[in-house]
Amino acid sequence: MEQIGVALQETLQPNAATRKHGEDSLRTLQANPGYVIQILQLAVNEQQNVAPEIRMAAAVALKNFVKRNWGQAPEVEMSQEDEEQFRNMLLDAMFNTTKSNVQEILSNALYLIAQRDFPEKWPELVPYLSKFLTANDLNHLVASLASMDQIFRKFRYESKSTELWKELSKCLQSTQEPLTLLLANMMEVAQRKDSLGAEETAQWLKVLNLIAKVYHSLCSQDIPEYFEDHLNDWMPHFLQLVQISAPSQTSASGEPTTLDELKHEICEIFTLYSQRYEEEIAPYVPDIISAVWRLLETTGPDTRYDTMVCAALEFLSMVSQRQYYESHFTGDGVLKTLAENVCVQNLLLRQQDMELFEDEPLDYMKRDIEGTDVGTRRRGAIDLARGLCRRFEDKMLPCLSEIVQTLLASGEWIKIDIVYSLVTAIAVKTETAKAGVTATNPLIDINDFFIGQVAGHLNSDVNQTPILKADALKFAVTFRKQLAPEHLMTAIKASDALLSSSTPILHKYAAYAIERILIADNSKIFSAHNLPVSSILQNLVAAFDKDPKAQNSPYLIKAILRIIVILDEETIRHADSIATKLAQLIESATKNAADSVHTHFLFETICVLVTKTRTIGASLDAQLLPLIEVIFREDLEDLIPYALQITGVLVSSCISRNASIDQFSAFLPFLLSERLWARSANVPAALSVLEVLLSVNARGVVADNSALILNHLSRLLGSKTLDQYGFQLASAILPSIEHFEGQAMTFVLNTMFRRIQSSKTPKFIKLFIVFLCRFTILRSAQDLVRSCENIQTGMFGMLIERILCIEMPGLKQTTTAPEKRIIAIGMGNLLAEATQQLV
Q1: Is residue 414, in this structure, part of any structural domain at all?
Q2: pLDDT for the residue numbered 499
Q3: Long-range contacts: 555-558, Cβ < 8 Å, 24+?
Q4: Average pLDDT over residues 425-429
Q5: Residues in domain Importin N-terminal (predicted)?
């Protein structure tokens, strides 16, 4: 245990090398018998001789051990007896520790184990947890409920199955009655909640929140019979809880309090029941609608309430769609009140929203255009407005149209911002993330709104009303399938102008609009000849210099790529001037981590540039090769696949323009290194580069590297997930096998034969037969016969009899057209040249 303590202490040190040594030591020590028991004892040892930070580090190390060893490929093999002992000790430790932070980590570890072992190997888990539901110890109660919440959460999202329902039934048998009694006990406290201190109130609300979470999970598949019979023991309490207040529960950072989370969970339960169990909940629906409506009207604009408000809006949106509840919305003035007091009020930008636009523009954009606004008021209000329009179109359209006209007449940009959301909510019938809107409300003229409002916002001063310009660009993207080509042209040209705005976030919106509109241009309306491609490219590149955080998002580089794609031989010259800047961006990525999607498209853009024009390929060689060398030398793991990809493109470019590839010989040690090929993600790109080099300079590549290449081949062929790359490499070396040292062909075939004997798969057999046929094409059928007979006399006959004759009929359904062609030619070669060997 002392060694473990020392290693844990090292993992907490500020020096990176020391931390790494500590982590490596723990990985070594984990193989020792009793390691996991010892580290558990350290985590819960509350004696003074063990520092609190060591206990916390031990708990984290324990959870990481469980994560690595209770999965598909455990690093340490444990016997069933040891696993059972550890599970029991973990349960006891979780309930006996008094440190809530350690208890929470142990609960997470327990959940990771339960994912694999419950219920088959650990049937007593939930009954054991359930017995603490009747305990008076709050720590035990929280630990039990928190574990149940994690374990039962899968009932919310997993598909129905016999096994899942058996598991759910066992969980219900142990928990449904004590959970119902626990809620009743907790609600007795509600009568004296005002006399509780802040800490006691927080604990009480935490228990109630966990009860609601567990109940939600248990009811998600179907309403359990017990809960259906005892609905009156739950719904009145939920109605009471959704209306209570707790002034002592405050949030300084804008995060929801436990009470906010409880109300959010209850609103989700109301939504579940109203959607799935209409008849059962019908007697409570009028009171629920009133309570949720009152909640929305009395809740302030603070961000801490956002997820709760969104859940309440989702409930109203859902019940408004159900004919069963229609009467609750058709009363005089109800829909108008909903539109004005609920929808419009929750669409209004708040001060914190405007601060987000200015200070954290990327977060604002992700919410606005990438769909991460789930759980925000605006998304909830838009969904409610859209739902009401679909269900009560004849009443809602006149109402919302009147609201829109009033907001437009005000002339205030903050109110016109609401108009964009309302018009979109009314107009959209169906949409997808890829294609945008696919069907619109025929009563709304999208093009007319563009002419009347959107075009004016796009073409006004680039530095004025930036939020409205962002709204306008988003509108053009959303309705890119419905807008006339001339309006889309207006949007693209306006985007070009907005790239020079003093507001950096508009550069991203403009780039986003350009990229989305062009990628949806299936009719090829836009081209390098009717768009200002030179200006757009220059402004996109200049935008990188105007914003130091530009590489933290992919919008600019994706737009650059889309413009380059539409360039033709006549207009590709416009891209020459940005090539150097792209190389500089790669250099920046080698020094400071950039957004991963930006990095991907940056390298993709370089590759497209090099492929489309020889002049750029020649000029970029000198700039990119030193950067590629840096990536290899410093082992920048995330960038290596891209460096390999671009190396292959540069080599191919050199070959196509008859230039020397000698400068790439310095990369061979990196390209063939064990470390590089050990990472599966690098293999496809490394192999593609090696194939190109072998095709033009096999002797130079193989010299001093034949053993290394064959080792890579052997490892790939032995892997069930990478064997296709092994055959690809084998095919690449076939034409130059004579340059390899020793009996290379014998080694290759023997490696394949051993794999067939030990662990063949249908995939491997197919690839093997295709390889044999390719062998006869690239070399000859006679050469294949000789190579097989060199291994063992009669081997070729056995190959035909035991593999080809047996497996060939099954290939009809598994091979592609090119593979069928190779097999046909290869078999023809065998029949023509090698049949005498079978006599």
Answers
A1: yes
A2: 96
A3: 555/365, 555/507, 555/508, 555/509, 555/511, 555/512, 555/515, 556/507, 556/508, 556/511, 556/598, 557/585, 557/598, 557/601, 557/602, 557/605, 558/511, 558/512, 558/515, 558/601
A4: 91
A5: 22-96
User: Is 336 inside any structural domain?
Assistant: yes
- Within-domain flag for 70: yes
Cβ atoms < 10 Å from Cβ of 773: 24
Q: pLDDT per residue over 341-350, tens digit each? A: 899 999 999 9
Domain boundary among 90, 117, 144: 117
Q: Report pLDDT for 477.
A: 95
Helix (H, G, I), strand (E, B) or coil at 659: coil
Determine if residue 218 is left, alpha or beta; phi over 0 gives left, psi from -120 to 50 gives alpha, anything else beta: alpha
Among residues 638, 615, 500, 499, the alpha carbon closest in space to that of 559 is found at 499
Is a pLDDT exceeding 80 seen at residue 372?
no
With CA atoms as reference, report the closest residue to 650 among 684, 692, 678, 679: 692
Neighbours of 432 (CB within 10 A): 8
Percent helix, strand, coil in the chain, to 5, is: 75, 0, 25
Q: Are 484 and 444 in contact (CB under 8 A)?
A: no
Neighbours of 694 (CB within 10 A): 21
Q: How many domains does the chain have?
A: 3
The answer as to whether 566 is a domain residue is: no
CB 129 within 8 A of CB 144: yes
Looking at 374, 400, 428, the residue that finishes a domain is 428
Domain residues for 799? 760-838
* Mean pLDDT, rounded, for 288-305: 91
DSSP states of 271-325 as a string? HHHHHH-HHHHGGGHHHHHHHHHHHHHH--S-GGGHHHHHHHHHHHHHHHH-GGG
* Residues pairing with 162 in the sheet: none
- Measured in whole angstroms, how far is the alpha carbon of residue 89 from the centre of its chain? 35
For 47-77, letters b (16+ CB in 10 Å) and e give: eeebeeebbbbbbbbbbbbbeebbeeeeeee
